Amino acid sequence: MTLFPEPTCIWDLKAELGEGLVWMEREAALYGVDILGRTVFRFHPESGARTVWDAPARPTFLVPDADGHLLCGCADGLRTFNGATGVFGTLTPVESFLPENRLNDACADRQGRLWFGSMHDPETEASGSLYRLDSRQGAEPVQMDTGYVVSNGPAIDPLRNRLYHNDSVRQTVFLFDLAEGGTLSNKRPFARIETGYPDGMTVDRDGFLWVALYAGGGVQRFAPDGTPDRFVRLPASNITKIVFGGPDYRTAFVSSARKSLSAEALAAQPLAGGLFRFEVEVPGLPPCVFRA
């Protein structure tokens, strides 16, 4: 496996649980969240400008919407977020019948559907699920798969009509066939992680899957057949999310977390919780937009 040049820390956020990265092309800016810090943040690579907003609940993911703003997943449901004003919209509850659950990660597909997962917040019960929200088929999310303690991802390969989804506790990346109409079939293991836990992930233009490894100290790239291809080591153990951005989508942005690290571990990795970047040869895909 080939190692990329050493990544650079672009913001020493010291996030307790950095997550939810998304590139907003029209702003040329990167957004993300600190789940445990209950904040949403924005970083402009060109100017270096940084903005942080307090969230009304623990924010977990961000997905661009058709209005040029963001859909913000929160511990208790879905809200819109306007980066120009810093204003959050009203709450649409999700899984209110499971008070120990929270939302965790998401992406949109080219048809404008939202794919998102939930998890058991204490991380002991397999009560988490994978949902699809398609405004053309109603206002309620549809449960597509279940039985997760911690669901993560998801990520879509539009060239091969695939959806990837992580069962983090089981250290397994699963693969589904994704039909044009939004149905999933043929769930099977794609890759098993031996060091760390699969967290946020994304697909590049060639259909290779990049997976952040929580407690794994880096990002693993997999070929479409599941073969480990490249590993990028980062100066933090808890790597939580990777996305592509920049003018040509050849910049990888990576978030990390300080959660559960001892004082000794934090002393050994002072950039834990930081935001990192490195360059890649094969560009990523622009994020798809959720159409409400």
TrEMBL record:
Residues 17-258 form the SMP-30/Gluconolactonase/LRE-like region domain. Transmembrane segments: none annotated. It comes from the Bacteria. Pfam families: SGL. PANTHER family: REGUCALCIN. Belongs to the SMP-30/CGR1 family. This is SMP-30/gluconolactonase/LRE family protein. It comes from Endosaccharibacter trunci. The lineage of its organism: Bacteria, Pseudomonadati, Pseudomonadota, Alphaproteobacteria, Acetobacterales.
